[in-house]
Specification:
The complex is a heterodimer of chains A (171) and B (173). Chain A is of the alpha+beta class and 171 residues long. Chain A is 19% helix and 45% strand. Chain B is mainly alpha-helical and 173 residues long. The chains are: A alpha+beta (171), B mainly alpha (173).
């Protein structure tokens, strides 16, 4: 008897509101659970820093065989551990390089680092150019070791530093 | 005269042989160092590939990958410091071997972790769905039974129908 009374008292609108609240709360909690480990955007970052570990203060003119001190910043947000290989190439104003094509220029230095997801590193560089050049381009290319292919693969990230390499003045 | 000449020529010959031997030894050791470095890098890349597979199966490879990075640094250091090359390369290879031996355990742990994660997600979804259904069925009843309990001491006054609903009362539509 009491049950019948109670059921009669429950309005359809009340039922609908309660159900809507529960569905929304439930959907939110499920979404939260499923999306907790999802990475919205996967990327790797490559940055070239000046001698003071800052963006700026880059050398414009250097002497032949003079040590150029720079820093390379690498950041991994790929969602997995990556084996990065950075090639430092010496190009000129005609050297073609873009996201899809790596520069066809001699490799001066190679830097390698294994970086887990969410971590970054700053590598100190000591570079030397052993030839006179005007409008020389130091090209920094990010490659990654592809475990499936067993070879390094160009990752489409690159940076450059324009330089004039001059001869030391004899007094 | 001839005897003297032969002594000098044998000394020169000995000197040439000594120079050649020393050059050959240094070249061989340099080549050996390079070979060692190349082999170490190859080994490191093989282990890295295995590690990536382990990561794909849910293993936590943070510590192992940091060790591998340390090994990589040692190999690079060996390139710059030929004097300590052998020691550095052997340290690097030890690290790489350690990581390699860790991989089966990591994969096992990863499998277990993935199983529990899936179980957790499944339980969370089931619990949410169950709570939706249970709340839909039970919550109005609970609410009204509580309401009735709260108002159980109220007195009900039965009024005439004419008195109970006024003409201007819009609550009943």
């Amino acid at each position: 008897m009491r049950r019948i009374v109670l059921e009669e008292m429950i309005d359809d609108e009340v039922k609908a509101v309660v159900m809507a609240i529960i569905i929304v709360a439930g959907a939110l909690s499920i979404a939260q659970t499923l999306a907790s480990e999802r990475i919205p955007e996967r990327f790797s970052a490559l940055g070239l820093l000046g001698p003071d570990k800052k963006i700026g203060g880059y050398p414009k003119t250097v002497l032949v065989n003079q040590t150029i001190n720079l820093y390379l910043f690498i950041d991994n947000h790929e969602g997995r551990t990556i084996y990065y290989i950075i090639y430092v190439k010496l190009g000129d104003k005609w050297t073609e390089v873009n996201e899809n094509k790596s520069a066809e220029a001699p490799i001066l230095y190679t830097y390698e680092v294994i970086l887990p997801h969410g971590m970054n590193t700053t590598i100190p560089l000591s570079l030397k150019i052993n030839q006179l050049m005007t409008n020389a381009r130091l090209i920094f290319e990010m490659w990654i070791y592809d475990p499936t292919a067993g070879t390094p693969r160009y990752h489409g990230r690159w940076n450059q530093l324009w330089l004039n390499v001059t001869a030391p003045q004899i007094s | 005269m001839n005897k003297r000449f032969s002594v000098i020529s044998s000394k020169i010959l000995a000197l040439i042989i000594l120079t050649l031997t020393l050059t050959a030894i240094s070249t061989i050791s340099e080549v050996r160092c390079e070979v060692d470095e190349v082999q170490a890098i190859r080994l490191l890349r093989e282990v890295y590939s295995k590690l990536v597979e382990a990561e794909g199966s849910g293993a936590d490879i943070l510590n192992a990958s940091l060790q591998l990075d340390k090994a990589l640094k040692l190999i690079k250091q060996a390139e710059e410091d030929p004097r300590n090359s052998d020691r550095l390369i052997s340290e690097a290879i030890t690290l790489i071997s350690n990581v390699d031996s860790m991989i089966p355990t990591l994969i096992e742990e990863g499998g277990r972790k993935t199983f529990f994660k899936n179980l957790y997600v499944f339980s969370a979804v089931s619990a949410t769905l169950s709570s939706i259904i249970l709340s839909y069925i039970l919550s109005p009843r609970i609410f009204w039974s509580l309401w009735l309990r709260a108002k159980s001491r109220w007195l009900v006054k039965i009024m005439d129908e004419k008195d109970s609903v006024r003409r201007d009362d819009r609550r009943r539509g």
